[in-house]
C-alpha cells in the first residue's frame, strides 16, 4: 500500500494522492482502483449532482447505448457481472444510470466524490511535483496524480445561430436534458441534427409531437437495432462463460466479442453478398458493420457495396420517393462517420406529422421568437431540440485551464490538434493521466472495455511509480510524436477521413482537423500498452 500524503500542508491546502475528474464509468472505476486497490487518498470531482457522466446528462427520449447490454458493463467484479440483470438487448439510459448508481453504492464510491463541483484549473508545481487543482466552488487541493475521467463527449455543441436568444419557446440540447423530461404532446417541434442522438430521439418525439420538423444537414446511413426485451435464456448462457466472452472483447477490434471476418465483399458473388447483407440487416446492430465483410471499413469498392445496400433499404422503407432521396446519403461512404443503429428511424418519415427539412441546400438563416427560418421557408415552433453533438475529445480538456511544466497550457500545446502518447499522457504534463484520451481507441470501441483497460494500466503505472520512488512520469516527446504519427497513419487506411465528422473535429467551426481516436483496434492497442509496461514504461521518462 502506498504511503499516504499528509492531509494539510503549511499553507492550509489539502494534500491528496490523487484527484480524479469525473464520476461516469471512468471516474467510478478509477476511484475504486486507486482508493481500494492501491490505498491512495483520492478525491473525485464531478460537475453533476450524482454519478453517471454521459448517462447522467444525456436523458433525451430514446437515449440508449449501441453496445449490447451484456458487454456494456464493468468486469472487475465477477459477482457484479453475475448478479446484474439487464432488461433489454441494448441498455437504455435510465437503466445504465441505475447500474452506475448500483456500482457506486455497492463499492461505497460516493464517499470521496464532491458532486456539483467542476474542476476549473490544474497547474503543475515543478518544485513539488504536484498538481494544484481548483474548482468552481473555490476549493483548492494539491495532488500527486491527476486523472481525467472527463468523457469524450461531454461538451455540448449548440450552433451559433443568430436569434436563438430571442426564441420564445423552449429549446434543449440532447446532452443536457432536463431531469423531469420534456412534454412534446401536441407541440410543434423542430429537431436539428441527425447523428446518433437525433436518430434515436426523432422516432420517439414524433410519436408525441403535434408536428415534427427534422432539420437535416447530412443524410445518414443507419442500421436497424432490432431492440427487444432481454432474452433471459441468452443472458443465462452468456453468464456461464462471461469471462471468456469479455476476454474475447478485450482483444477484439471494437471491444465487442465479434470474431474477425475473413471474407471480402469483393470476393463473393452478387447474390451471396446480398444474402449476407440481408441477414445482417435482419439481425441488426453492429453485426452489419463488423460481421459481414472485413473490408467495408477499409476498401472503398467494398464499402460501396454496403453503402449502396443501405441506400436501397432507405428507398424501400420511405414511401415518398422525394423524401427518400433526401434521406439517402451520397456525400460520404458508410462508416466514415460513426455508424448508427436505430429503431424505426426511416419509418418515421412515413408519418403524416413529420416533415424533413433539407438544410444542406437551404441552410438555417436565423431563429426568431416564433421559430426557425431557412433559406427556403419559415417553420413556426414551440420547442427546438438541438441534437447537434459535441466538441468531442478535446473540448472537455479545453474547458479546464491545464498548465504543465514551465506553465505551458495544454490548450496551447493542442492548438493544432491533440497530442498524447497512447492517448494516456502528454509530454510536459507529468503525472497527468487521461482515461480514453485522444489517440486511444475510446469512442471507436465499446467504452467500458477501453475504460477498464486504461484504468488498470494507469493504476499499474502509479503502483510502479510508488514502488520505485518515481516522482514524475511523462512521455518522451519523440515517443509521443511517433504515436501520433501512427494514429494518423492508421486512420489513413480507413474510411474515416472521407467525411466531415466529429472524429476529425469538423463539426466545430475553427477546430483543427485531426483524426482524434485510434483506429487500430482495442486488441492491438492493448498489446502495445502491455509491451510498453513490460519494457519498464518504454516511451515514458520516469524521474
Ligand atoms: P453528432 O453525431 O455530431 O451529430 C450531430 C448532428 O447535428 C449531425 O447531423 C450534424 O450534421 C448536425 N449539426 C451539427 N452542427 C450543426 C449545425 N450548425 N447546423 C445544422 N446541423 C448541425 O452528435 P450526436 O448525435 O449527439 O452523437 C455524437 C456521438 O455521441 C455519437 O457519434 C456517438 O459516439 C455518441 N452517441 C452514442 C449514442 C449511442 O450509443 N446510441 C447515442 C448518442 C450519442 P453534420 O453531419 O452535417 O455535421
User: Quaternary state, please?
Assistant: single chain
**Amount of beta strand:** 15-25%
Gross morphology: globular
Ligand inventory reads: NADP nicotinamide-adenine-dinucleotide phosphate
The radius of gyration is: 24 Å
The overall pLDDT, averaged over residues, is 97
- Total number of helical segments? 17
Helicity level, as a percent range? 25-40%
Characterize the largest beta sheet: strand count, sense, and whether it forms a barrel: 8 strands, mixed
Classification by helices and strands: alpha/beta
Compute the separation of the termini in Å: 21 Å
Strands, count: 20
Low-confidence stretches: 1-6
Compact overview of the structure:
This protein has 543 residues and is of the alpha/beta class. It has helices spanning 25-37, 54-57, 78-83, 93-106, 196-208, 232-240, 242-250, 270-283, 287-290, 300-317, 321-327, 345-348, 395-398, 410-413, 447-468, 477-492, 522-534; strands at residues 14-21, 42-45, 113-114, 119-125, 130-135, 140-148, 170-173, 188-192, 211-216, 222-224, 340-342, 354-358, 364-367, 371-374, 377-380, 383-386, 401-403, 432-434, 473-475, 540-542.
What key phrases describe this protein's structure?
543 residues, five-stranded parallel beta sheet, single chain, binds NADP nicotinamide-adenine-dinucleotide phosphate, alpha/beta, 17% strand
Describe this structure as you would to a colleague.
The chain has 543 residues and is of the alpha/beta class. Strand 4 and strand 5 form a beta hairpin. The model is unreliable at 1-6 (pLDDT under 50). Strands 1, 2, 3, 4, 5, 6, 17 and 18 form an 8-stranded mixed sheet that branches. It is 32% helix and 17% strand. The protein has 17 helices and 20 strands. The longest helix is centred in the last third of the chain and has 22 residues, at 447-468. Helix 1 packs parallel to helix 15 and helix 15 (447-468) runs parallel beside helix 17. Residues 65-66, 153, 159, 174, 192-198, 200, 217-218, 338, 359, 387-390, 443, 500, 502, 507 line the site of NADP nicotinamide-adenine-dinucleotide phosphate (NAP). The site of NADP nicotinamide-adenine-dinucleotide phosphate (NAP) has 25 residues, from helix 5.
Amino acid at each position: 500500500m502506498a504511503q499516504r500524503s499528509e492531509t494539510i500542508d503549511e499553507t492550509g491546502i489539502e494534500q491528496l494522492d490523487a484527484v480524479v475528474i469525473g464520476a461516469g464509468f471512468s471516474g467510478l472505476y478509477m476511484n475504486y482502483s486507486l482508493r481500494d486497490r492501491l490505498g491512495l487518498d483520492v478525491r473525485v470531482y464531478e460537475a453533476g449532482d450524482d454519478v453517471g457522466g454521459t448517462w447522467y446528462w444525456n436523458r433525451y427520449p430514446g437515449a440508449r447505448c449501441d453496445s449490447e447490454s451484456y458487454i456494456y458493463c464493468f468486469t472487475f467484479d465477477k459477482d457484479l457481472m453475475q448478479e446484474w440483470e439487464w432488461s433489454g438487448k441494448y441498455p437504455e439510459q435510465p437503466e445504465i444510470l441505475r447500474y452506475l448508481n448500483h456500482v457506486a453504492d455497492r463499492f461505497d464510491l460516493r464517499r470521496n466524490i464532491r458532486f456539483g463541483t467542476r474542476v476549473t484549473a490544474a497547474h503543475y508545481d515543478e518544485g513539488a511535483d504536484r498538481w494544484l487543482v481548483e474548482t468552481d466552488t473555490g476549493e483548492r487541493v494539491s495532488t500527486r496524480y491527476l486523472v481525467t475521467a472527463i468523457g469524450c463527449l461531454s461538451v455540448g455543441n449548440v450552433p451559433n445561430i443568430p436569434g436563438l436568444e430571442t426564441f420564445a419557446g423552449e429549446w434543449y440540447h440532447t446532452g443536457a436534458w432536463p431531469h423531469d423530461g420534456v412534454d412534446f404532446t401536441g407541440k410543434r417541434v423542430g429537431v436539428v441534427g441527425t447523428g446518433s442522438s437525433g436518430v434515436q430521439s426523432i422516432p420517439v418525439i414524433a410519436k408525441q409531437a403535434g408536428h415534427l420538423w427534422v432539420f437535416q444537414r447530412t443524410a445518414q446511413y443507419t442500421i436497424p437495432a432490432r431492440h427487444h426485451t432481454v432474452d433471459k435464456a441468452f443472458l443465462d448462457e452468456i453468464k456461464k462463460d462471461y469471462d471468456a466472452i469479455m476476454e474475447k472483447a478485450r482483444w477484439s477490434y471494437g471491444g465487442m466479442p465479434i470474431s474477425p471476418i475473413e471474407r471480402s465483399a469483393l470476393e463473393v458473388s452478387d447474390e451471396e453478398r446480398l444474402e449476407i447483407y440481408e441477414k445482417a440487416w435482419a439481425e441488426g446492430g453492429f453485426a452489419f458493420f463488423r460481421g459481414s465483410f472485413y473490408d467495408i471499413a477499409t476498401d472503398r469498392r467494398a464499402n460501396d457495396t454496403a453503402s449502396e445496400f443501405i441506400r436501397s433499404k432507405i428507398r424501400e422503407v420511405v414511401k415518398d420517393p422525394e423524401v427518400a432521396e433526401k434521406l439517402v446519403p451520397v456525400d460520404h461512404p458508410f462508416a466514415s462517420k460513426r455508424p448508427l443503429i436505430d429503431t424505426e428511424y426511416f419509418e418515421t418519415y412515413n408519418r403524416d406529422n413529420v416533415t424533413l427539412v433539407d438544410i444542406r441546400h437551404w441552410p438555417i438563416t436565423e431563429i426568431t421568437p416564433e421559430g426557425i427560418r431557412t433559406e427556403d421557408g419559415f417553420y413556426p415552433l414551440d420547442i427546438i431540440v438541438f441534437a447537434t453533438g459535441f466538441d468531442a475529445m478535446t473540448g472537455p480538456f479545453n474547458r479546464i485551464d491545464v498548465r504543465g511544466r514551465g506553465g505551458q497550457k495544454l490548450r496551447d500545446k493542442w492548438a493544432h490538434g491533440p497530442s498524447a502518447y497512447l492517448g494516456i499522457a502528454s509530454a510536459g504534463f507529468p503525472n497527468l493521466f487521461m482515461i480514453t484520451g485522444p489517440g486511444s481507441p475510446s469512442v471507436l470501441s465499446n467504452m467500458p472495455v477501453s475504460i477498464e483497460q486504461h484504468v488498470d494500466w494507469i493504476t499499474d503505472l502509479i503502483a510502479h511509480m510508488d514502488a520505485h520512488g518515481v516522482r514524475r512520469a511523462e512521455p518522451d516527446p519523440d515517443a509521443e510524436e511517433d504515436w501520433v504519427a501512427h494514429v494518423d497513419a492508421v486512420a489513413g487506411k480507413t474510411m474515416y477521413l472521407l467525411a466531415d465528422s466529429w472524429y476529425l473535429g469538423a463539426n466545430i467551426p475553427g477546430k483543427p482537423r485531426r483524426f482524434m481516436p485510434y483506429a487500430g483496434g482495442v486488441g492491438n492497442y492493448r498489446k502495445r500498452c502491455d509491451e510498453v509496461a513490460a519494457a519498464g514504461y518504454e516511451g515514458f521518462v520516469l524521474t
